[in-house]
Design brief:
The chain is built from 23 helices and twelve strands. With 637 residues, the chain is of the alpha/beta class.
Length: 637
């Protein structure tokens, strides 16, 4: 009896084990099916995201193309003879197209953020350049409402940071523009400071935008960063807006690993605070500029002196520079030789930078070629046009050569970190007292800053001074003639060129004057006689001071030879040797200027150098000059 019971229990147990085994096998099979389904879903999601990203890119192109045509042809239309009413209509079309373009950009950003298709592009960026763009874009909005726009930056913040500068600019633009929109009187202030590292050891960048506007209650503050939240209907009617700018900014800050908060009281204004962690790379621990060596840059600018300045500085960093004087010339050069980067001016005769960039992008072999715009107008509208034309970035003039190596490295992808600017190694070797005072046209501090931007090359700065006197003697008269015949494009180009030249010298007052009137001409507004006289007076004052203070030195008079100190002469000769070795014809003029001083030290050797240069044996002349200077230094020692 007991045996039968045990057999029954064993049979029942065996059956139970078999049942559990079948259930386990079924569960494992189900688990495998779920894993396969999960893999399929992950692949579908990835494919969906890729398709969505491609869709956004295609739609962005498809929508921006006709919008650019609308705004572009509207501008061309305004350059023709129109009645006041027709000009008003054309201006409304242009303004509406630009507003629509900004709105579309923001909507696409929001969609890409929600789908995970928006990716940050960290790279070195120059803080001062970013803030300069902000002021250029937003100061007119503040002026229109009679508001004060203040920007305060902590001295502890490095000149160059690593991050997605374009997205940081977008966040700040949205916040400051928002403050201006909802403020009727008072001011909007942007403050940027550095917070020391916390538990993770990373420093944080804090940006606060404070306004004296209408303020908000707690209920609105709580939902402010949700898409399409702009308050009640009365706010929409009074101030406009879609409620997505702040939502995009909030998500961009989160994507950067940061936080955004708002403090506000109704009727008392608001304060938006953003904190983002800085990249762990320290800008001080930079590889040498030799990292740039070997790359070839195509430099496109119709102004020969601008090309000369940029070429000489970039060649000192080991870059090979090819020059083109307009977009058509650049296209021909690209057919003949390969380049790693294109630096493209925008306003040029025959073919401008935007058209040239479009032509380059039409060719599949240039799809990955970095194209960077160079413009004195760093506004959002100009940037949008550049990006729509296929350019990768915008470099604002006057070019900050101190921060340029970092940006070159990012565009060329030759190093993940940053590059030590040549300026840091040279500026302490070039005392500002070597240059005459050019006040009041150029303040001493602005003159010294312009010299530092040129890598401390005093000889090059003197050439810029000389070039300005020669090049812009007739600019005011040409400007009057262009305006009298209704040639707005020529007038804009003249003001743009004068502005760039003045800014390169540090003539800030003249540069700002030209920038102000250039914008008016671009908007097809008439320039008053007072405006024209302001340009004329600024230009004439600067030219007169240049002739009085540095005329003799630039003319290469005999008396200059007696006033070169040994240190001055050594620097000038070093610059001359570099120019001789590059085979540039301007070496002849440079030697003529230095020859009296050289003859005072060693007449026979100086004459031998002159004969070599006259025979165009520049390399031998450079070598003889170096040996001559070495003997002089040894004798002094």
């Amino acid at each position: 009896m007991a045996g039968r019971d045990r057999d029954g229990e064993m049979a029942a147990l065996k059956a139970r084990v078999e049942r559990l085994s079948r259930q386990l096998a079924a569960a494992e099979e189900r688990n495998r099916e779920l894993r396969r389904e999960s893999a399929r879903l992950s692949a579908d999601v990835a494919e969906s995201n890729r398709a969505k990203e491609a869709f956004f890119a295609n739609m962005s192109h498809e929508i921006r193309t006709p919008l650019n045509a609308i705004t572009g042809f509207s501008r061309l239309l305004m350059a023709t003879e129109l009645s006041e009413q027709q000009r008003y209509y054309a201006q409304q079309v242009t303004d509406g197209g630009e507003l629509l373009l900004r709105l579309i950009n923001t909507l696409f950003d929001l969609s890409k953020l929600e789908s995970g298709a928006l990716h940050l592009k960290p790279a070195p960026f120059v803080v001062e350049e970013l803030l300069q763009r902000l002021r250029q874009e937003l100061q007119p909005l503040a002026d229109k409402k009679g508001l004060t726009l203040e920007i305060a930056v902590d001295d502890a913040i490095p000149g160059t940071l690593t991050g997605d500068g374009q997205r940081i600019h977008q966040v700040l633009f949205n916040l400051v523009e928002n403050g201006i929109k909802f403020t009727e009187q008072g001011k909007v202030k942007l403050e940027i400071d550095l917070l020391p590292g916390g538990a993770d050891g990373a420093d944080r960048l804090r940006m606060r935008v404070t306004d004296s506007g209408i303020g908000m209650d707690e209920e609105l503050c709580a939902r402010l960063f949700r898409p399409f939240s702009v308050g009640d209907d009365s706010l929409i009617r009074s101030y406009g807006g879609t409620g997505i700018g702040l939502a995009v900014s909030y998500r961009l800050v989160s994507l950067m690993g940061g936080e955004m908060h708002v403090r506000s009281r109704k009727g008392e204004g608001s304060c938006f605070a953003v904190e983002i962690p800085l990249q762990s790379e320290a800008v001080d621990a930079s590889p040498p500029v030799e990292e740039l060596a070997g790359h070839r840059v195509l430099l496109v600018d119709d102004q020969a002196i601008n090309r000369q300045v940029a070429r000489e500085i970039m060649e000192d960093w080991g870059l090979e520079v090819i020059e083109a004087e307009n977009g058509a010339h650049a296209l021909r050069l690209l057919e003949e030789q390969a380049c790693d980067l294109v630096l493209m001016d925008l306003l040029m005769p025959e073919m401008g930078g935007l058209e040239a960039a479009r032509r380059i992008r039409e060719q599949e072999r240039f799809a990955a070629l970095p194209i960077v715009a160079m413009t004195g107008n760093g506004g959002e509208e100009d940037r949008a046009q550049c990006l729509a034309a296929g350019m990768d970035d915008v470099l604002v003039k006057p070019i900050d050569f101190d921060g340029l190596p970092q940006r070159l490295a990012a565009w060329l992808h030759c190093h993940e970190g940053t590059i030590t600017p040549l300026v840091e190694k040279m500026e302490t070797d070039v005392p500002s007292s070597c240059l005459p005072s050019l006040q009041p046209a150029i303040r001493d501090a602005d003159r010294d800053q312009a010299l530092r931007a040129l890598g401390g090359d005093e000889a090059l700065y003197r050439q810029l001074l000389e070039h300005f006197s020669d090049e812009h003697a007739e600019t005011p008269a040409k400007l009057r003639r262009a305006l009298s015949r209704g040639d707005q494009a020529a007038a804009e180009r003249l003001l743009h060129t004068l502005k760039s030249s003045a800014a390169s010298l540090g003539a800030r007052a003249l540069a700002e004057c030209c920038a102000r009137y250039e914008k008016r001409v671009r908007r097809r507004e008439a320039l008053t006689e007072e405006a024209l006289q302001a340009v004329e007076q600024g230009c004439t004052q600067l030219r007169n001071i240049l002739q009085q203070q540095v005329g003799k030195a630039m003319a290469g008079g005999e008396e200059k030879g007696e006033h070169y100190s040994d240190a001055e002469l050594a620097r000038e000769v070093a610059a001359l040797c570099a120019v001789l070795e590059r085979g540039e014809e301007r070496a002849i003029a440079m030697l003529d200027r230095l020859l009296p001083a050289l003859c005072l030290r060693d007449a026979a050797e100086s004459e031998a150098v002159r004969q070599l240069v006259d025979g165009f044996d520049f390399v031998a002349a450079a070598e003889k000059l170096r040996r001559m200077m070495q003997r002089m230094e040894a004798k002094e020692g």
